[in-house]
Amino acid sequence: MSIQSLSGQAVLVTGASGGIGAAIVERLAEEGARPIIHYGRDRAGYGATKAALVNLTKSIARSFGADGVVTLAIAPGWVRTEMAEDFIAKFGKKAAVADIPIGEMAEAAEIAELVAFALRPSQRSLNGATLDVNGGSYIR
């Protein structure tokens, strides 16, 4: 698949001020996409909004899939970001990865690569999917 496959596509990235979101925006821009960045500091309702995003992803897929709109959600577990590094510094790596069966956090670049792959036109059957990237730490 050529790099042009994402050229000109608009992509909404939430939490893109740093960490995973920033890595995703950078990778998508390299692939020719036009990232739309959303970031909010208010953490009230964090869990509810995560669940709402999964449902919204499915709803958009059902409502607009016939129009060529492809939507998907990425649900990462622990990712090695500045926040994760702060946790490791305070509690140690063993505590950070205790609930991750593979024993390692994902890297932000790994998530960004997955997003770039998943948004290629050849992957349109992923429409409506939520991709868990958590090293097996929970099962949906």
Characterise the protein shown here:
By secondary structure, this protein is an alpha/beta fold. It has a single domain, classed as NAD(P)-binding Rossmann-like Domain (Rossmann fold). It is 40% helix and 16% strand. The strands form 3 sheets. It has a two-stranded parallel ribbon with strand order 1-2. Strands 3-6 form a two-stranded parallel sheet. The chain is globular, with a radius of gyration of 16 Å.
Kindly list the characteristics that best describe this protein.
140 residues; alpha/beta; Rossmann fold; two-stranded parallel sheet; globular
Helix content: 40-55%
CATH domain class? Alpha Beta
Write out the strand line-up for the largest beta sheet, numbering strands in chain order: 1-2
Q: Tally of extended strands? A: 6
Instruction: Flag low-confidence runs.
Output: none
Write down the secondary-structure element order: EHEHEEHHEHE
Q: What is the CATH architecture assignment? A: 3-Layer(aba) Sandwich
| SSE-based structural type | alpha/beta
